[in-house]
Design brief:
The protein has about 230 residues and is an all-alpha fold. It is built from 8 helices and no strands. The longest helix is centred in the middle third of the chain and has 43 residues.
Length: about 230
């Protein structure tokens, strides 16, 4: 799935469409880099274990050393790519939901300034709020629902799961701040005002673990949901 075709004369404004398309290509590029880095890390980790098992006590250890150095660099790049991917994917979802909602509810187009603001990385609270919009209920059913049985229910579960995942990230950000005796955030409400990319210390387990992959899927789906609403009207 990439990005759907839209009629230039449809209800989407040029800047709404351009912003959504640009964010989509940005997060897809970062997503592929992250997935490649994850594959490289897994491969090097396995190679490191093999090198450690095959090294006799008196032998040289250059192979193991080389693998360790490579894995260290790849590990850093994997986290960097993940945070870049998060920044653009989260923004794509928040902007997409705002556009979807205004089209579904037949509201005026977003302003240029409003679109530009929504293109920035959202706070965790803003992302959670976007995930709380009943998107599956706003998207019309397919002409032949039997083609994909239970599609609406499955979609609703995805949104609920993702919303709970982001709520868990907010809790983790607060826990990390408490553990490290940081001045901010000190409450859950304060944690909701944080940007994930600024609260994912490199020496800790990534707070996006288990959440980034499903976020890709929803952000990629939203433009297609918008297209379904437009085509249904």
């Amino acid at each position: 799935m990439r990005f759907p075709q839209f009629n230039e004369s449809g209800p989407l404004t040029g800047y709404e469409l351009e912003a959504m398309r640009s964010l989509s290509t940005a997060f897809l590029t970062a997503r592929y880099e992250w997935q490649t880095a994850c594959t490289m890390w897994d491969r090097l980790h396995a190679a490191g274990e093999t090198a450690a098992l095959g090294r006799a006590p008196a032998s040289f250890s250059f192979h193991e050393e080389a693998v360790g150095r490579l894995a260290s660099g790849v590990g850093g790049y994997e986290r960097h790519a993940a945070l870049v991917a998060w920044r653009y994917t989260a923004a794509a979802l928040v902007l997409g939901v705002a556009v979807l909602r205004r089209i579904a509810e037949d509201k005026p187009p977003l302003t240029v300034t409003g679109v530009e603001e929504l293109c920035q990385e959202p706070t965790l609270g803003q992302l959670h709020a976007a995930l709380s919009v009943p998107v599956p209920d706003l998207v019309p059913e397919r002409r032949y629902p039997a083609d994909i049985p239970g599609e609406r229910e499955s979609s609703a579960r995805q949104w609920v799961t993702m919303r709970k995942g982001v709520a868990g990230v907010i809790d983790l950000v607060l826990e990390l701040a408490t553990d490290e005796e940081a001045a901010h955030p000190r409450t859950r409400d304060e944690a909701a005002t944080c940007l994930l990319t600024q609260h994912c210390p490199p020496h800790t387990d990534p707070v996006y673990e288990g959440v980034l992959q499903p976020l890709f899927q929803l952000a990629e789906q939203v433009p297609y949901d918008i297209a379904r609403i437009i085509n249904h009207t």
